[in-house]
Design a protein that fits this description.
The complex is a heterodimer of chains A (269) and B (480). With 269 residues, chain A is α/β, with parallel strands linked by helices. Chain A has seven helices and twelve strands. In chain A, the strands form three sheets. A six-stranded mixed β-sheet of chain A has the order 6-9-10-3-11-12, sandwiched between helices. A four-stranded antiparallel β-sheet of chain A has the order 2-1-4-5, covered by helices on one side. Chain A has a two-stranded antiparallel ribbon with strand order 7-8. The two termini of chain B are 32 Å apart. Classes of the chains: A alpha/beta (269), B alpha/beta (480).
Chain lengths: 269, 480
């Protein structure tokens, strides 16, 4: 469902991504790992459509369409969701109001009826259970006065409500204590499904103890240097990013899943 | 225009005044004692009221137009204005919505104004108008049974002269300021409300007022009295855009709350702000003041100001009675080339008086938004307390937000708190909303409405919903 080819991205005249390739099939969970400054968050935001990133070369296809031609809100309505590393506060706007506006914008785009208040509240309650969150979250202003952990869990809650096709989670595990990490992982696992692709951007292997990825990629210096299965994450944990990875030994094409043999059994284009 | 035209029409035959034997629509431009006399005569006013007007006029001649406000506009030629306009005749009114400015209709649509009301608001000469008269009459009977007087100012002068005479000018003296003096001399009409002892007005005086916004005209005068133990909530204005050929509007509103009385006065003002280049638009120079005359009385102002080219307005409270409470909740928006200089005065005279000020200023385009407020604690106001919060939000880099809080304290037992903040609407916030599927325009509207929430929740429910939509519509095109 997602095909990134030779993506080059500049931010403020500095080249951050230098020819990145990545293919994600529906039903797969991919982990993108890498040291600070390697371009992980840039990748997440370029896919989500944040202004201020200049794509100088390369293509991104999402379900066969040119993703880069769409505005951020169009991408969201087409099912691309980014769980922010630093969720933004919107004082005075309740979570319920915000989510309803978002869900209805998405539904409208897809030619569906807007959900009425009762149905919407029922939906929210069901999703809250999934993430093990309290109801009081619904009336609180979006991320305003939330603890770090609450913000991250709220992102997953939003994801559960909006049911994206492609979910990008940007360091959703950072700043979480072990209980919160488990709760977030439970939520993410509950949302795995044959139609949904996920991209987990993370520094650490520990998240992958709870969410087992189909593929693991090492992003370094703006390129994917190595790809493998979950054992690669464990190897990195042991040796670090500096050890074990040799650019020469890891052609970028390794990141591209072979066209004939999708990695997961559930994989469909 | 709009509601004014309806009112003109609705009240033309229905109420007195407007006896048009002296060529009602042909009063020469300019202001003189003769003009004041003609206005008074046309309204068949008693001699004392004419004297009151003349005194105001003579004083006005000695005054100069204030220049301290943070607004700029070309000099007003007071001799070029016409000070009495006759009611519009039905033959001038549009026959159907097809004849109404499409832009106006588009705005009604966005605001979600019901179809039937659109015709009335646009001044269409149809049965809707007569419907509204009968609706109004029904309300009036119901209120009348409880002893509540709610009528046009002219009618009150005729029917309740003792009340008008007792309270007119008791809060805003005729010589109070330049515009108040001008209004006192030439006021056209307005509203009068008296709620008798111990009566709790059973409804928001809104539906009635909205349909029956008594031919306000250029110089509106409102007088509202809540007698001992009375409670009333009064809504003024309308979210529908109001256009008017008169550029200067100088209204006066006086509120009087006696012992244990409560007055809640809510305004949504959406007069024509001029076009995107700043041409045209209403100058809204208003004096609004309430007096908490009695013990334990309370006056609460809530305003949402999105219209007018220039706003000069300071709804204030004189807290005279012991334990009386004054509140001011304000949202003021200045978009395009709009200028708003608005705020409040809380004058603490009595013991243990309390006041709260929550002001939210939003500037966009080239708009300039000024908060100007005074908190004054007099010597005798032992134990007085005030809390002020002035927040400004900027959209874009061409606009401005200014805050001028004045504090005068003459009693050391008082407590004052002042908080102020300025924020710029964040690109991060907009992007976050967009990433959830919400358009940039809806995001701005949502973020601004969130910013104003503390004020909106003071508005009566139906008004609050309209005000939120209004803010969104008023901000259209301010991002991009």
């Amino acid at each position: 469902m997602l095909e990134v080819r030779g993506l080059h991205v500049r931010v403020d005249d500095k080249e951050i991504l230098k020819g990145l390739d990545l293919t994600v099939y529906a039903g797969e969970v991919h982990a993108i790992m890498g040291p600070n400054g390697s371009g992980k968050s840039t990748l997440a935001h370029v896919l989500a459509g944040r202004p201020g990133f200049e794509v100088t070369a390369g293509t991104v296809l999402y379900d066969g369409r040119d993703l880069l031609a769409l505005s951020a809100e169009e991408r969201a309505r087409e099912g691309v969701f980014l769980a922010f590393q630093y969720p933004v506060e919107i004082p005075g706007v309740s979570n319920t109001y915000f989510l309803r506006a978002a869900l209805n914008a998405i539904r409208k785009h897809r030619g569906l009826e807007e959900l009425d208040g009762m149905d919407f509240v029922a939906l929210l309650r069901e999703k809250l259970k999934l993430i093990h969150l309290d109801q009081d979250l619904l009336q609180r202003p979006v991320n305003d006065g939330f603890s770090g952990g609450e913000k991250k869990r709220n992102e997953i809650f939003q994801m559960a409500v909006l049911e994206p096709r492609l979910a990008i989670l940007d360091e959703t595990d950072s700043g979480l204590d072990i209980d919160a990490l488990k709760a977030v992982a439970d939520g993410i696992n509950a949302l795995r499904g044959p139609e949904r692709g996920m991209l987990l951007v993370t520094h650490y292997q520990r998240l992958l103890n709870y969410i087992v990825p189909d593929r693991v990629h090492v992003l370094q210096d703006g390129r994917i240097l190595r790809s493998g299965d979950k054992s690669l994450a464990l190897e990195l944990e042991a040796t670090g990013y500096a050890g074990g990875v040799s650019p020469a030994a890891a052609p970028t094409s390794a990141a591209v899943a072979p066209a004939v043999a999708p990695t997961g059994t559930t994989g469909t284009r | 225009m709009s509601s004014k035209a309806i009112q003109d029409l609705a009240s033309q035959e229905y109420k007195y005044g407007f006896v048009s034997d002296i060529a009602a629509d042909h009063i020469p431009a300019g202001l003189s004692e003769d003009i004041v006399r003609i206005i008074s005569a046309k309204k068949q006013e008693p001699a004392w009221l004419l004297e009151w007007r003349l005194k105001a006029y003579r004083h006005w001649l000695t005054m100069t137009e204030p220049t301290w406000a943070n607004v700029r506009y070309p000099k007003i030629d007071y001799q070029a204005m016409v000070y009495y306009s006759a009611p519009k005749s039905q033959s001038d009114a549009p026959k159907s919505l097809d004849e109404v400015d499409p832009e106006l209709l588009a705005t009604y649509e966005k605001l979600g104004i019901p179809l039937r009301e659109r015709e009335a608001l646009a001044g269409v000469a149809v049965d809707a108008v007569f419907d509204s008269v009968s609706v109004a009459t029904t309300y009036k009977d119901k209120l009348g049974a409880m002893g509540i007087i709610f009528c046009s100012f002219s009618e009150a002068v005729q029917e309740h002269p003792e009340l008008v005479r007792k309270y007119l000018g008791s809060v805003v003296p005729s010589a109070d300021n330049f515009f108040a003096a001008l209004n006192s001399a030439v006021f056209s009409d307005g509203s009068f409300c008296y709620v008798p002892k111990g009566v709790r007005c059973p409804m928001e005086l809104s539906t009635y007022f909205r349909i029956n916004a008594a031919k306000t005209g250029q110089f509106e005068r409102t007088l509202l009295i809540a007698d001992v133990g009375a409670t009333v909530s009064y809504l003024e204005g309308c979210t529908a855009p109001v256009r008017d050929e008169n550029q200067l509007h100088a209204a006066v509103v006086e509120l009087v709350a006696l012992d244990d009385a409560t007055i809640k006065y809510s305004t949504v003002q959406n007069w024509y702000p001029g076009d995107k280049e700043g041409r045209g638009g209403i100058y809204n120079f208003v004096t609004k003041r309430g007096k908490c005359a009695g013990r334990n009385s309370k006056i609460s102002w809530t305003q949402v100001e999105t219209g007018s080219a220039i706003t000069w307005k300071y709804p204030s409270c004189i807290l005279q009675g012991e334990n009386s409470i004054g509140e001011f909740y304000s949202v003021a928006l200045a978009n395009h080339y709009q200028q708003a200089d608005t705020g409040t005065k809380m004058i603490h005279l009595g013991k243990n008086t309390r006041s709260t000020i929550i002001s939210k200023g939003i500037s966009a385009g080239h708009g300039q938004n000024t908060y100007r407020g005074l908190v004054k604690i007099a010597k005798g106001a032992t134990g007085a307390r005030n809390y002020s919060q002035c927040d400004s939000m900027l959209l874009g880099s061409q606009c401005g937000a200014h805050t001028f809080p004045y504090i005068e304290v003459k009693n050391s037992s008082s407590t004052l708190e002042h908080e102020a903040s300025v924020s710029k609407i964040g690109e991060d916030q907009i992007y976050y909303c967009q990433q959830r599927g919400i358009s940039a325009e809806d995001a701005v509207s949502m973020i601004v409405n969130g910013f104003c929430k503390e004020v909106f929740r003071e508005l009566p429910m139906e008004f609050a919903v309209e005000a939120q939509k209004l803010l969104g519509v008023s901000l259209e095109g301010s991002v991009g």
